[in-house]
Write a structure and sequence with these properties.
Blueprint (H helix, E strand, L loop, with lengths): L4 H5 L38 H17 L7 E9 L2 E2 L6 H4 L2 E11 L4 E10 L2 E12 L2 E10 L19 H4 L10 H15 L10 E9 L2 E4 L2 H5 L3 H4 L2 H6 L8 E11 L4 E10 L5 E3 L5 E3 L8 E12 L2 E12 L22 H4 L5 H17 L7 E9 L2 E2 L6 H4 L2 E11 L4 E10 L2 E12 L2 E11 L15 H4 L10 H15 L10 E9 L2 E2 L11 H6 L3 H7 L7 E11 L4 E10 L5 E3 L5 E3 L6 E12 L2 E12 L9
Parallel strand pairs: 1-6, 7-14, 15-20, 21-28
Antiparallel strand pairs: 1-2, 3-4, 4-5, 5-6, 7-8, 9-10, 10-13, 11-12, 13-14, 15-16, 17-18, 18-19, 19-20, 21-22, 23-24, 24-27, 25-26, 27-28
Amino acid sequence: MRTRMIMTAAASLLVLGGSCMPAALAQDAQGSPGGHGTASTPAADCDRACLTGLADRYMAALVAHDPQRVPWAIHVKFTENNVPMRIGDGLWGTLDKQGDYKLYCADPEGGQVSFFGVVVEGSKTSVYGMRLKVQDRKISEVETLLARPREGRVGFPNPAGLTPNKPIFAEVEPAGKRATREQLVAIADSYFKTIQQNDGTVYAPFDKDCIRVEDGVQTANNKKAAATGNKVAAMGCEAQLKTGLLRFVTSIRDRRYPVVDVEHGLVLAATFFDHAGDVRTVTLTDGTTRKMNAPFDAPYSFVILELFKVRNGKIRQVEAVLEDVPYATQSAWTPKLPPEPPSTHEPNAAAVVGCDRTCLNGFADQYMAALLRHDPKPLPWLPNAKFTENNVPLQPGDGLWKTIDRQGDYKLYFADPDAGQAGFFGTVEEDGHAAVFSLRLRIAQHRIQEAETIVVRKSATSFAQPEALEDKPILSQAVAPEQRRTREQLISIANGYFSTLQQNDGTLFTPFDENCDRIEDGIATTHNEMKRDDSEGSNIKRMGCIEQFKTGYFRYVTRIRDRRYMLVDVERGLVFAGALFDHDGTVRKERLTDGRTVDAQFEIPWTWLIGELFKVQDGKLRQVEALVLKVPYNTASVWK
């Protein structure tokens, strides 16, 4: 089992503002102590060799799990897959080795350098992109992106497809033919303009031999693809875009061009590709119609680092690292004003007088009816109402509002008249694909103040089985008045469940009914006799709640944070909770309470966004039903 010493070493490295670095970190790019520089030292004092040397030094420190080896500026911002976190977290704790593939782009004038490569975490090999900003020969910004293996995505990423040498990126452009910084940025931006809602118009200048590689897969000018029937990948860059096939890319936003290497004709772009999911068919420029298949027929986004090689004023090669994120995820590097907070002028208690269970359930029905009509306007919204889908603030009308086709048969209502909150679990369908859905509404002055939704689609980030969800009468049954627990007691029982699960050592911190069951995204994860293989995970799923937790098997859940208990239905003994489950990936082996050592279930960092409903009966936890969505590691809650 890996130790967690890395976090101790990095404890003083703050992300957004912080204290002075330890003396051991005040080193120059060559590693000698005392290379502090001065506040007046220009970025240009770190030349190309200095910048690429710092990139190599960063990677060496990463492999060694030792941030102390890097010369840090006083204030450092670090992100991994668009999530701000402390230096020492994420890949710092899980990287086992670096691959041979290395691609640099250095910008001495701007004091920035990028690096593309391959990294290995346990048995997982990923494509890696990084950008460093250097000030006074110290690193002040680190932007990293990992395209890790995705279940259900055949062939993506393909780190093995990245060959160690690509001379074209190292070619120096003749002095008389070099594009300026402004021209390079304009050429890269014209590429995105061509792709966004692509109608066949080409705004970018392409070399006839232009090649594009995405996560190690050659997706343009790939002559081998023709033999497999992939005619699109066999086309050149310009020919592809002239077809109009990429019309389903509805927005390319938060475009940045932080690294420009004029000498080599390179520009690194950072951006997001949004796919709203409502472009189900595309009419190509030749008049033929192409149906969009999953995942492009549902809302999701890519976060992207993309490197362009420009030769003689034309795009000759494109290489990108891209990773899935929830639809419309906001950029951590181009922050926007936060959404207006919910209206606070009305007192909570007085605001919900007269909205009983029937009233609250009626609001849930109104919401679902409006959703099916794709029209949020008739709903009674409060000014500054807050709406999220999968932890991303959106405008009502975006996301599932555009793509839902029908509502499934599974419907579970719960309500909290004292707090003015309505809850709903169900299933929805988009383009013939079922998804698990949850809704929480906060009602004030008989209007909607908050709408929080989670949609778990069957995709590379989910193991959902919406079709398996069925009515469970126990969740709708009222608890006898003499057996009801107070709001505080119900919340304590739910919180004890999370405490039992977090770095599980076999201790039970909440009372469980001996028949306790759990359903996650429609899948029975207790008493599941369908799991018949001999793996430890399948064996665990055949157990009940008590037996599972006493094994200590869930030790890999390193943190359960941002716990919220939004809705408490005292009459039915229900608590609806929200939380984020972090798996930092450092727990590779687990020692169970019976003395056995087993492989941990996960070996890379990631987080679960959770909406969880607890049923308490006779003071004990009897049933758990949850929506579980995989999101980038350390994702912050927009509600807490």
